[in-house]
Amino acid sequence: MNRYPAWKYILLTVVVAFGIIYALPNLFGDDPAVQVSSSRGFELDPALQGVVEEVVDAEEIQVRSTEFTPDRLMLRVNGSEEQLALADALREQLGDAYVVALNLAPATPGWLRALNASPMVLGLDLQGGVHFLMEVDMDTAGAQRLEDFVGSIRNLLRDERIRYRSVRAERGQVIVELRTAEDRETALTEIARELEQLDLEPVDGNDTFNIRATIPAEVMDEMQRNALQQNITTLRNRVNELGVAEPIIQQQGAERIVVQLPGVQDTAEAKRILGSTATLEYRAADEQNDPFEAERTGRVPPQSKLYFERNGNPILLSRRTIASGENLINAAAGFDQRSGSPNVSVTLDAEGARRMLDFTSENVGNRMAVVFIEQRPVTRTVDGEQVRDTRRVEEVISVANVREPFGRQFQTTGLDSSREASQLALLLRAGALAAPMQIIEERTVGPSLGADNIEQGFNSVIIGFCLVLVLMAIYYKVFGLVANLALTANLVLVIALLSMLGATLTLPGIAGIVLTVGMAVDANVLIFERIREELRLGNTPQAAIRAGYDKAFSTIADANVTTLIAALVLFMFGTGPVKGFAVTLSLGIVTSMFTAIFGTRGVINLIYGGRKRVKSLAL
Amino acid sequence: MDIIRTNTRIDFMARRKIALIFSVVLILASLGSLVIRGLDFGLDFTGGTLIEISYPEAPDLTDVRGALADADYENFSVQTFGTSRDIVVRLPPEVAAEEGADVSTAALNALESVDPGVEIRRVEFVGPQIGEELANQGGLALLYALAGILLYVSFRFQWRFAVGAVAALVHDVIIVVGMISLFQISFDLTVVAALLAVIGYSLNDTIVVYDRLRENFRVKRKGTAKELTNLSINQMLSRTVMTSLTTLMVLLALFYFGGEIIHAFAYTLIVGVIVGTYSSIFVASTAALILGVSKQDLMPVVKEGADQPDQEDLPARFRNT
């Protein structure tokens, strides 16, 4: 007698049901949708929903559902015509602060979404789009930083009236040449006090007393991390310009950034936008003239320019810049030591520090503003022809009072929340001169190829799957049909797990699924062959079944672990699509252990296990 | 129904000399092809630019070449891909080194001048710094996989088996890479992935035979190592063939219906499954035998009054004392 206790059947049913539920969302298609998000990557204001609803009502577009999250607002509509109309209307109404993008929202029914079930995300090779790998030029970033230190040391020595012969950057170090040993002593203490992150070492030149300053490895690492982060921030802002619904911008390794833009076809445009530049300028507020007067009359004093703050108040700013983005070394959000309120601390380079000190010494009590300037590429239609041009966009991101004179380092306080502080720091960093970036890899897949890939991938899964089903049924009869059930369950489980993990399905991923289908039957082949063998040895059918499953188990386990090792190595070393292949292969191996051993045994027990006398097995 | 007679008594070991010669010939041919023809390294490793486009009507290839030559490109190749309307243009890595990612944009402009209705199917640009890295990573991955397997099999069986298994794997990889070279299949990243899958598959086959060998060594009182090896291979033959068949079926489906991009991948796996099946029968066990696997190596430690079945599951390395 071969019987499973009830709990095993319950477990089996639960796992299969679970697999079906989480694989199910992949069967529903997509709804055309319009997605609204902040063009600066900020959280959305809930009030936005009201504004959007007004537009929807005015345009008389039927919206099937509205989903609001802090990241985005998604409106599902009935067809692509409504989608385009709604997107155009929203773009006009919302302006530059928001990105309005066309998207395809998965049409997963509500009850499945309530269970957190969602379909697999299609990779770029299946849905079409652009993949860029950008490399940040860390050598240049390091050289820039070194030059900053050269400038800072020069200023310091000048301020402290220490006579020096030269300060220069040389082979990744700063060399300071001084005339006397006493000068070197004072210089060493002053530099150590002011620029504490440098490692200093006295060395003797031919007829000079030198100091060799090196940037310690951890400061260099920190600098590289910042440079990368800064570039990622800048890229996010740029990509938002493209109106891509679900862009991916990720760090890869220490120097690289992956940018994936699903659905984007015009790679030339994408490259231009990714390469566009932003900067920022610190400017003094014009306190002599009334900005409201200037706004009303349109008469702006010649030395000033009229801007608007984020709250809509007009402000007049001097045309002269105090410091610009290229002077900004770092901006970090934090909390004020004394008051505990949120702040942003800013570090300027030597030149910026000097000019800032000059300005603030004379302007205590006056206001200073930060203007964020972007050169945005635009395509205009002139006389029926498309002309590509850049548009200068300026925006005041911060206005603050100068409380006391400051130079290299200062803090902006009076911010409402730590969120506002981190947003300001993010914008400041985005406007700083970032380390140069280069595209080192581009992969574009057109929509027609993507569609072909899906179709061909899908076809090969189905055809391969059916071939295996037929072969198994013919060769192992009833047992083969049971194995086929297990194989189907295995396919469902793999898809369910991939969907739950939020894995991206790529063409190699599909290949992994196909290969899993071919190899997953191996466990059953091993078991069935063993049962046949036991039968030949003269065992009763019941005993043969038991022995077959028991004896084949360790073989199956050993064989699968070794395949898993290969898949694991593939996962560790592979990138992108190859990783996808490794993931599907590994998942398939693990689930096939469950379905092919535990699952088939359950069904075989149901068929043969209960009978007292089994004359022969349909095997 | 039995496709393979389940009670086979083929004397595989008697044929091992022939098999050895066959393997040596294949390996020499593979190495020869690698030396003479080399590998057709794909864009992933060489760097460069590939543009696949679809024209509304089949273009004259000379026009396409002329347009690219007018744009000052040299050493490019223009081929049809699938249908006569689909064209693949390959630009050498030197161009990419000079112009960076803008090269694909500029080349596309040139291709549009032939027929503005052109549709982009695929653009791949790989900078020179990437290719070298990927090649190193791929090579490392193969080495790590082999090392991991060597360790696991030593732990679960015995070092002679591990060496035998790895010998079979190296045999497989050399022959598969040789076949890729012989038929000038483009060697790209997906092929590396396929090679690792071949390692996994071939090993799977080998382990199954070893597992039976271990069982027979312990259970059967009579028989030399050679006879028992023969028995084990015969016992597992129908399984080996059946699993290879199902795997080959899905791979053929992938090869014929999976599209051009997956072609090299499927080809590699098909060759790999065939070679892997052959090596698990003729190479892995023979190698273990040559290294002198004997019954003693796999015998459980005999304890007082012991005949407990659970001893069977002790790892082999504990039994060598």
Describe the structure.
The complex is a heterodimer of chains A (619) and B (321). Chain A is an alpha+beta fold. Chain A has 4 domains: 183 residues, Multidrug efflux transporter AcrB transmembrane fold; 79 residues, ACT domain (Alpha-Beta Plaits); 79 residues, General secretion pathway protein M, EpsM (Gyrase A, domain 2, 2-Layer Sandwich); 168 residues, 2-Layer Sandwich (Gyrase A, domain 2). In chain A, 50% of the residues lie in helices and 26% in strands. Chain A contains 16 helices and 22 strands. In chain A, strands 14-15-13-18-19 form a 5-stranded antiparallel beta sheet. In chain A, strands 2-3-1-4 form a 4-stranded antiparallel beta sheet, covered by helices on one side. Chain A has a 4-stranded antiparallel beta sheet with strand order 11-12-6-21. In chain A, a hairpin with a 2-residue loop joins strand 7 and strand 8. In chain A, helix 2 packs across helix 3, helix 8 packs across helix 9 and helix 13 packs across helix 16. The longest helix of chain A has 54 residues. Chain A is elongated. Chain B is α+β, with helices and mostly antiparallel strands and 321 residues long. Chain B folds into 2 domains: 214 residues, Multidrug efflux transporter AcrB transmembrane fold, CATH 1.20.1640.10; 79 residues, Alpha-Beta Plaits, CATH 3.30.70.3190. Chain B is built from 12 helices and 6 strands. A 4-stranded antiparallel beta sheet of chain B has the order 3-4-2-5. In chain B, strands 1-6 form a two-stranded parallel sheet. In chain B, a hairpin with a 1-residue loop joins strand 3 and strand 4. Classes of the chains: A alpha+beta (619), B alpha+beta (321). Chains A and B meet through strand 6, helix 9, strand 21, helix 13 and helix 14 of A and helix 5, strand 5, helix 6, helix 8 and helix 9 of B. Strand 21 of chain A pairs antiparallel with strand 5 of chain B, so a sheet runs across the interface.
Provide a compact summary of the structure:
Chain A has 619 residues and is α+β, with helices and mostly antiparallel strands. Chain A has helices at residues 6-23, 48-59, 80-94, 110-114, 124-127, 138-159, 181-194, 217-241, 267-275, 291-297, 350-362, 418-431, 447-500, 507-536, 541-573, 576-609, and strands at 30-38, 63-68, 72-77, 98-106, 121-122, 129-136, 164-170, 173-178, 199-204, 209-214, 248-252, 256-262, 278-285, 304-308, 314-324, 328-335, 342-348, 367-382, 385-401, 409-412, 437-445, 504-505.
